[in-house]
């Protein structure tokens, strides 16, 4: 680190200290008081030395004692003359002790039970026998109030400390929450001095959603621009989208851009062991927000408290989650006004939210954040490639084409993994090959270089994957092939084929049937080649079964069942099917019929292309990985036009063949309940 960097770091640390000065902790005062109480209880204030009656007799004979005190008829204190302490050697240790050398304090003490009867008689008898001067003897009674009081206070104090500790543990007090603040809001406040370092420039691929949120921020900055035309600010905006698409990142950008206070918390922060705490925290949150208005409240994962009411399985008792939701509904749009407070929330499960929470007046806008398309992925790659030292051959558009269906979080992970892989190889820059390896790692997991499979299993895997490749090659609606590999990767994948699916949101019945045939290609190839089947098609069969049931029960793609859909998101906890047992039997029969027809069609295709199939399987056994260019050399070009953008095959092929690192298959399955295209890994 250079001197300039060191000075900048010191200045930054000083600024952080000035912005966040350390507050005095009152627990230090409690600790000091506790130590003093223990010291007063366990350490005596009397500094006199313990002695015996025989020693005291010698002191009396030497005429060194000035007086004797009897405390509570048991403790005897002996006072020595100052002249004796100064002049006699046997009192040398008393002279060194300043407190003991004072005449006002006793120098020695000893115990004498029932001293009032026998002590004075013994001293008088000694005085007569030795002809000594009579010394005064005082009998006193003293009460040790401090010791008695501490004997009560210390046990009570220990019980109080233990109780506070237990209550903190129950209330999540590891972060310093006090027992009396259990109903306080746990929201983190971001103001001008504590802004996040994320801005709208760091959010890419979400242009429509970003425009909606920017308008809300602009309203807070320039309210007259909208109010002059009679417009009103939206009270709330709900960010909806799959995990990893950037909902929380967009909220962090709002916190960094807005010039108003920003409260951030999670839906689980309202959930607590004690009944009524969630509602109390909601009230406290809005009380703080009203004091800071205009401001923004962001609730992440709002489905933790926003689930539809009346769905709980447990009957009876007070439902803490429902009472928290009721309080939130009342605060958002109740009788009292909350002007100047905007609520942002995020969830990936909008179907389970209560309808009262979604109505206008509470969440006026529902902003959908989907997985980015090709252009969006390219923009996201450009953002995450900025801090990475890349080689000039690394292009964001090429990476975007090879990562269909990737969300923003997955793209960020790819860039990070590529940098780690390059660093592991002691490279000065991150090359395109490192990104290829990172994509393979993110999709399929770590390459199993130490997993050794038998030649028989390797042959089965090769013919299985060749079946997928051939069926997909000659199916019109199948995704274009990128590469096929039989190198083990991940937990259970012994082979895979990687495809580049089209950027589309709607699928026809013909397309879904072609995809099913492509998935069944491995099982059909095994049956035709080896006259037996293996367990390697489990993942294929799961995908095909889900697709067939979706065609029949969700998308109305079956003539016998008709144009009906049995999906009802409002019946999350329903124990009954929305159709009769007779209809269920018909659905099962139709699903088996669709799968059987697809399987027969797949086998017929393989039989007609058997020579090509054998070429691909043998090439896989020899090279363990083949690419689209190899397929074209062996069996010719694909007989269907491909208008979608593809990666430059030669460049990718050369890089991957040199490194001999495979990639995982990407297969597009039908849209889910929300017509969302998903990207899946196909495992053998």
Written account of the structure:
It is built from 26 helices and 16 strands. Helices cover 49% and strands 10% of the residues. It is α/β, with parallel strands linked by helices.
Task: List the keywords.
single chain, 684 residues, alpha/beta, 26 helices
How far apart, in Å, are the first and last alpha carbons? 50 Å
Task: Give average pLDDT, whole number.
Answer: 77
Give the C-alpha Rg: 41 Å
How would a textbook summarize the main sheet?
6 strands, mixed
Q: Stretches where pLDDT falls below 50 for ≥5 residues?
A: 173-179, 643-684
Overall form: elongated
Put simply, the count of helices is 26
Tally of strands = 16
Order of strands across the biggest sheet? 6-8-9-10-7-11
Report the helical percentage: 40-55%
Q: Strand percentage, roughly?
A: 5-15%
Label the structural class.
alpha/beta
């Amino acid at each position: 680190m250079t001197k300039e960097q060191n000075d900048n770091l010191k200045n930054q640390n000083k600024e952080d200290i000035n912005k966040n000065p350390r507050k005095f902790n009152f627990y230090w005062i409690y600790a000091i008081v506790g130590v003093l109480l223990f010291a007063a209880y366990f350490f005596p204030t009397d500094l006199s030395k313990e002695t015996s009656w025989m020693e005291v007799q010698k002191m009396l004979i030497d005429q060194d004692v000035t007086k004797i005190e009897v405390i509570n008829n048991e403790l005897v204190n002996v006072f020595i003359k100052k002249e004796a302490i100064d002049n006699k050697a046997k009192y040398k240790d008393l002279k060194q002790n300043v407190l003991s050398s004072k005449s006002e304090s006793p120098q020695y003490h000893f115990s004498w039970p029932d001293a009032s009867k026998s002590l004075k008689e013994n001293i008088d008898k000694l005085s007569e026998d030795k002809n000594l001067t009579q010394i005064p003897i005082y009998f006193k009674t003293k009460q040790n109030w401090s010791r008695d009081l501490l004997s009560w206070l210390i046990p009570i104090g220990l019980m109080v400390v233990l109780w506070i500790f237990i209550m903190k543990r129950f209330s999540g007090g590891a972060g310093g929450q006090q027992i009396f603040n259990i109903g306080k809001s746990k929201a983190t406040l971001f103001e001008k001095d504590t802004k996040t370092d994320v801005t709208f420039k760091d959010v890419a691929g979400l242009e429509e959603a970003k425009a909606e949120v920017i308008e809300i921020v602009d309203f807070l900055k320039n309210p007259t621009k909208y109010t002059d035309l009679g417009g009103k600010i939206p009270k709330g905006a709900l960010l909806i989208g799959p995990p990893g698409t950037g909902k929380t990142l967009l909220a962090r950008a709002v916190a960094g851009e807005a010039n108003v206070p920003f409260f951030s918390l999670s839906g689980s922060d309202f959930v607590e062991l004690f009944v009524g705490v969630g509602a109390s925290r909601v009230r406290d949150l809005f009380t703080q927000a009203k004091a800071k208005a205009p401001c923004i409240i962001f609730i992440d994962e709002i489905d933790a408290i926003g689930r539809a009411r009346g769905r709980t399985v447990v009957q009876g008792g007070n439902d803490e989650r429902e009472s928290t939701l009721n309080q939130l509904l009342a605060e958002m749009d109740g009788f009292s006004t909350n002007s100047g407070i905007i609520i942002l929330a995020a969830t990936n499960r909008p179907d389970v939210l209560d309808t009262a929470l979604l109505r206008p007046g509470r969440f006026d806008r529902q902003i959908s954040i989907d997985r980015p398309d090709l252009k969006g992925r390219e923009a996201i790659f450009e953002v995450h490639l900025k801090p990475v030292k890349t080689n000039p051959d690394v292009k964001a558009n090429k990476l975007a084409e090879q990562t269909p269906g990737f969300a923003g979080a997955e793209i960020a992970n790819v860039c990070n993994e590529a940098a780690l892989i390059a660093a592991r190889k002691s490279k000065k820059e991150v090359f395109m090959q490192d990104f290829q390896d990172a994509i393979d790692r993110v999709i399929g997991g770590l390459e199993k270089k130490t997993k050794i499979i038998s030649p028989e299993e390797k042959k089965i895997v090769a013919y299985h994957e060749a079946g997928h490749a051939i069926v997909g090659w000659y199916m019109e609606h199948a995704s274009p092939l990128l590469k096929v590999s039989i190198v083990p990767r991940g937990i259970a994948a012994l082979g895979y084929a990687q495809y580049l699916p089209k950027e589309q949101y709607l699928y026809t019945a013909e397309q879904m049937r072609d995809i099913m045939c492509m998935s069944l290609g491995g099982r059909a190839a095994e049956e035709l080649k080896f006259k037996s089947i293996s367990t390697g098609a489990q993942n294929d069969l799961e995908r095909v079964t889900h697709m067939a049931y979706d065609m029949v029960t969700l998308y109305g793609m079956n003539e016998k069942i008709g144009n009906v859909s049995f999906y009802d998101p409002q019946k999350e906890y329903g124990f009954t099917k929305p159709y009769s047992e007779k209809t269920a039997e018909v659905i099962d029969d139709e699903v088996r019929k669709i799968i059987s027809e697809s399987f027969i069609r797949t086998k017929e295709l393989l039989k007609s292309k058997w020579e090509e199939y054998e070429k691909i399987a043998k090439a896989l056994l020899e090279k363990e990985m083949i690419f689209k260019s190899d397929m074209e050399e062996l069996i010719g070009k694909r007989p269907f036009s491909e208008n979608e953008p593809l990666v430059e095959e030669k460049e990718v092929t050369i890089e991957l063949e040199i490194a001999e690192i495979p990639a995982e298959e990407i297969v597009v399955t039908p849209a889910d309940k929300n017509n969302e295209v998903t990207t899946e890994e196909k495992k053998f």
